Amino acid sequence: MTVTIYDVAREAGVSMATVSRVVNNNPNVKPQTRKKVYEAIERLGYRPNAVARGLASKKTTTVGVVIPDIANANFAEVARGIEDIANMYHYNIILCNADKRKEKEIRVINTLLEKQVDGLLFMGGVVTDEHIQAFNTSNVPIVLCATTDEKGTMPSVDIDHETAAYDAVRKLIAEGHARIAMISGTLQDPANGFARYQGYKRALEESGIAFDESLVRVGNYRYESGIEAVQYFLELAERPTAVFAATDEMAIGAIHGIQDAGLSVPGDISVIGVDNIRLASMVRPLLTTVAQPMYDIGAVSMRLLTKLMKKENVEQARVTLHHELIVRNSVAPRG
Amino acid sequence: MTVTIYDVAREAGVSMATVSRVVNNNPNVKPQTRKKVYEAIERLGYRPNAVARGLASKKTTTVGVVIPDIANANFAEVARGIEDIANMYHYNIILCNADKRKEKEIRVINTLLEKQVDGLLFMGGVVTDEHIQAFNTSNVPIVLCATTDEKGTMPSVDIDHETAAYDAVRKLIAEGHARIAMISGTLQDPANGFARYQGYKRALEESGIAFDESLVRVGNYRYESGIEAVQYFLELAERPTAVFAATDEMAIGAIHGIQDAGLSVPGDISVIGVDNIRLASMVRPLLTTVAQPMYDIGAVSMRLLTKLMKKENVEQARVTLHHELIVRNSVAPRG
DNA sequence: CTGTTAGCGCCTTCAT
DNA sequence: ATGAAGGCGCTAACAG
Questions:
Q1: Cα separation of B122 and B142, whole Å?
Q2: Most exposed residue of A192, A319, B236, B330, measured as fewest CB within 10 angstroms of its CB?
Q3: String of DSSP letters for A269-294
Q4: Which residues form the HTH lacI-type domain (chains A, B) (predicted)?
Q5: Residue among A49, A69, A283 whose CB faces B283 most closely
């Protein structure tokens, strides 16, 4: 039925060790024998069994990726970065959605480990002690991707969310705005949520602008919640002149919510986001935002993981990628 | 170092066969022994090695997915459908991007097969004889996802692209439009490209509208190419009153291109797309489009694959999912 | 440069 | 209900 290395050996008139050598590009094979073996392989249509290989060599050349939701554009972009680099280093990727739900995250970490992945890339919500504990049941390298753990003990690749938010709000302030609303993510989320909220507060504070709780709405990162938040702001006795949204999707919702109310962006109200999703340049006005290099986060974390897997020594296991203010058309000086 | 089934057996004072049985939920184990084994597993922190399991049982409980580009929202949505159902049936997914490039597709098909996946889901560009040939080197079940092969010999799940396009154009005609432009995908692409182009022509033909080559522009599915196409149409001596775009992304580009030229959608020109991506309801005006059930295509094809893998007999191995016209605000009666 | 020989960790008859 | 034993297909020393 299935042709094995043994069949090839017989067909080529050599031992299976030799076949193994040529398949693995071991230089210690006479060119002539190598040729014979290749021919036998061709003739028989032999295909190496990666599972058997994995068992014998204790390496599977596959890495596990736990991701909140592949259908989310941001994470999909990260995933693409991961896969490109993985591919480059001849690794394959096992992808598991975990929806930022702890139990599910822990569960997939375990099944990934059962599958004997050579490494693990983790994107998720909060990284709790339970996560760390799950990680520690194995000794394959693991890197956090687009997150960090509180303790800072694990290798990770992320941006500085607090400063990204800070920079966005500073931009608004630089344009003369003082009454600046924020559409936040859930404060339980350390990165997209809490850190960005902190950045907002810090920017205000540094400029001597009093923090006003009524100017903050917590959204769920989605477009619709941007619309809702802005509807609320528009009812306020004293409207904000600018809105900072923790994510572009909410920012775009905000833009449309404002426009739907008959006001203009940035004429009446300026809007700024964070992320720089593709969509940001697919709306009118084009969204001013702080770019987060999603693809690179994936690529860099995968690259870091390859080093860890090869036991190369890495100088810096916690890397922070740069964010960048992208000025487009949704922010204007205060009227 | 690593604890094996053998260690557990010793610890529990049973044979490894028994441990194997409890791990695999074989009912032929006395409850009491089962308990002993579980305790030993717990105490030792035993984790079954899926690779060894795979070698011995010839089943890996993982399926391969070749996808054009996970960062593309449509495919990401399909992938999510796949993963959800896979998860439900306790399969894991190995994800490979192949960018619709034949050589890369063939290559990943082979590595996936080497990894002994229990089944394969293929999304790609054209399915050539070479693909079929690659598929035939193995006897794991394979289903085409969001594509079909010309010959119609393989299991597949897709929508009827020709009719979807036809329905879109019929809508435009029903609103009184006769001068209808099309922004097409590449005609080499059987599904999103050629079939949709055919649907456009059929709709015109049936209504006795002469086909006018100058009203067709070939784009690359992207937003920017929608803008470019529409710029071209706007230069025409006799402008179209409606635009049919083969994908929503190009349709949205068209909307913005028209708006940027100072015209109104749908006031001056109506626009309709196909796909119903999330973005379609995140623009102004909201995009009228023909919905393609991406998530379901993924889910159904994975479900079909599970049946094939379990050798259940399937009545219908080629399934066509329904598309649906979603009327929103980008189409108006001809002025 | 090539062959022999042990496993890798588990499943799976076949006995008992 | 449980144990013994033979692979699954391949890699990795170790000889020669």
A1: 7
A2: B236
A3: -EEEEEE--GGGGSSSSPPEEEE--H
A4: 3-57
A5: A283
Q: Model-level pTM?
A: 0.95
CA neighbours closer than 13 Å in the CB half-sphere of residue B228: 10
- A232 CA to D12 C1', in Å? 68
Give the mean pLDDT of chain A: 96
Residues 64-83 of B with CB under 8 A from A: 69-73, 76-77, 79-80, 83
In whole angstroms, what is the distance from residue A75 CA to residue B45 CA? 32
- Distance between CA atoms of B201 and A255, rounded to whole angstroms? 38
- Residue A159 DSSP label: E
Dist. CA B213–CA B322, nearest whole Å = 30
> pLDDT (tens digit, 9 = 90+) per residue, A161-193?
999 999 999 999 999 999 999 999 999 988 889
pLDDT at B125: 86
Interfacial A residues in 166-205 facing B (CB < 8 Å): none
Buried b (16+ CB within 10 A) or exposed e, B293-328: bbebbbbbbbbbbbbbbeeeeeeebbbebebebbee
| Residue A169 structure tokens | 């709000």
Place of tokens 């991007």: B97
Give me the amino acid identity at B303: R
Instruction: Report DSSP state, residue B213.
Output: G
How do B288-291 and B324-326 pair as beta strands? antiparallel
Distance CA B129, CA B208 (A): 38
For A193-222, give the DSSP string: IIIHHHHHHHHHHHTTPPP-GGGEEE--SS
Per-residue confidence (pLDDT) for residue B187, from 0 to 100: 94
The encoded tokens of residue A99 equal 């929806």
Distance B14 CA to C5 C1' (A): 30
pLDDT at A214: 96
A chain contacts of residue B60, beta-carbon cutoff 8 Å = 51
Residue A125's pLDDT is 86
Return the percentage of chain B with pLDDT > 90, whole number: 96
- Over residues A12-16, the mean pLDDT reads 94
- Please give the biggest Cα pair distance in chain A: 89
**Strand C nearby residues, CB < 7 A:** A 13-18, 21, 27-30, 32-34, 52, 55-56, 58; B 2, 4-6, 16-17, 20-21, 23-24, 46, 48-49, 52-53, 55-57
For residue A236, what are the contacts with CB-CB under 8 A and spacing of at least 6? A214, A215
